[in-house]
Design brief:
Distance between the termini: 97 Å
Helix content: 40-55%
Shape: elongated
Number of strands: 0
Largest sheet: none
Radius of gyration: 33 Å
Number of helices: 5
Length: 123
């Protein structure tokens, strides 16, 4: 890479365009944003911003994912069960569109009075 830039210096114009093309080339070759930032002595955010400004399509995050990857199955048995499941899911949806019956509002239970309060009232 070219000479190291002073930390915290503003990079604009042609110099920023040159950096963007260098970073984009390295990123396309497989380097991570963190690796590029460490080598250049710049922050992750700076390198990320320059790559986005340059129109580079950024890769997704690496490492383990939280869910199980869904795979497309080519077995006909699974396709028919999937079709049956979607058919059963559609039936209740039609029933849900019918107007719902009005239910009577539930009354709150009556408050219980304690013996002390009842005796105080009688006096």
């Amino acid at each position: 890479m070219a000479k190291a830039l002073a930390k915290g210096s503003r990079i604009t114009g042609a110099q920023r365009t040159t950096l963007a093309s260098q970073y984009a080339r390295r990123y396309a070759a497989g380097d991570s944003i963190r690796k590029i930032a460490d080598d250049a002595g710049r922050s992750f955010g700076f390198v990320h911003g320059v790559l986005k400004e340059a129109g580079v399509e950024l890769r997704g995050r690496g490492g383990a994912t939280r869910g199980v990857k869904k795979t497309a199955s080519s077995s006909p048995a699974k396709k028919t069960t999937a079709a049956k499941k979607t058919a059963t899911k559609k039936a209740p949806a039609k029933a849900a569109k019918a107007p719902a019956k009005k239910s009577a509002a539930k009354k709150a239970p009556a408050k219980k009075t304690t013996a002390k309060k009842a005796s105080a009232r009688k006096r």
